[in-house]
Amino acid sequence: MAASVRYRPLTTMAEFEQAADLELTIWGGDMRDAVPAHVMRAIEHAGGLILGARIDAAPDVPLVGISISLPARRDPGWALWSHLTGVHPDHQGRGIGFGLKQAQRAWALDHGFDTIRWTFDPLLRGNANFNLNRLGAQGDRYHVNLYGEMRDTINVNAPSDRMEVVWAVHGPGARSDDIGHVALMVLLSIDADDQPHRHNLPTSSLPYVVHIPRDLRKLPAASVLTWRLALREVMQTAFAQGYVATHFVEMPDRSFYVLRQLQ
């Protein structure tokens, strides 16, 4: 019989220490960029959630996933702010991240939250697909260098630009990336040299298309920065016009956001 994954809130200092160790395993880098155990205690004590995932339920089984969230003021009320969610590298690709988000959603419903918010790197297409399509969240804000210079192995030497998403916990959930036969206006595309090409802003209210690279790992650091700055410009412009990122489309030769003006 295949082992099952169990999700439950962490409540003891010993568990928080395990979660802090798992953070470093997932993201690497410097402990100064991790959430220490005593801060997890403060978050849990003040009404937040430290969620853990284990293979089976035995107390001596190591954590394979964590999620940290706390109450946050967002007009017109409160949201549950999801600071981080991660899965041990040896257990990624098995649905544990999705399970953590669903357990977080259930906890939010039980504790009176209507929405969960978090941020992610908008140049990472895997995260974009997961957040917008699998979960059904929508991107509505763009933050420039939100965390300053970070020292972990994933974010080193790059501005920590982030897209903020909102997830309605009472909503329908997963969304298809099939947008049908809808007329679209391209704001950002990829040229023959894999560089970003900005297009003139349309005057209509048609949905926007914003392309991103298929694989950042294949691009030199200078090109990644060029892409980040181009994406920053078009996303900030679109969000200021009342657009939100509603879909992320994956095709064999391209990946792009679809932004719509919500009525």
Your description of this structure?
By secondary structure, the protein is an alpha+beta fold. It has two domains: 5-168, Gcn5-related N-acetyltransferase (GNAT) (Aminopeptidase); 185-261, no CATH class. It has five helices and twelve strands. The strands form two sheets. Strands 1-2-3-4-5-7-6 form a seven-stranded mixed beta sheet, with helices on both faces. The protein has a five-stranded mixed beta sheet with strand order 9-8-10-12-11. The longest helix is centred in the C-terminal third of the chain and has 20 residues, at 221-240. The radius of gyration is 19 Å and the shape is globular. The model has no long low-confidence stretch (mean pLDDT 90).
Task: Give a brief rundown of this model.
With 263 residues, the protein is an alpha+beta fold. The chain folds into 2 domains: 5-168, 3-Layer(aba) Sandwich (Aminopeptidase); 185-261, no CATH class.
Please name the defining characteristics of this protein.
263 residues, alpha+beta, Aminopeptidase, 2 domains, seven-stranded mixed β-sheet, five-stranded mixed β-sheet, 12 strands, 32% strand
For the record, what CATH class of the largest domain applies?
Answer: Alpha Beta
Number of domains: 2
**Helical/strand content category:** alpha+beta
Mean pLDDT: 90
What is the topology?
Layout: E1 5-9, H1 13-27, H2 37-45, E2 49-55, E3 63-74, E4 77-87, H3 96-110, E5 115-120, H4 125-134, E6 138-143, E7 162-168, E8 185-190, E9 196-198, E10 208-212, H5 221-240, E11 243-251, E12 254-261
Parallel strand pairs: 4-5, 8-10
Antiparallel strand pairs: 1-2, 2-3, 3-4, 5-7, 6-7, 8-9, 10-12, 11-12
Helix pairs in contact: 1-2
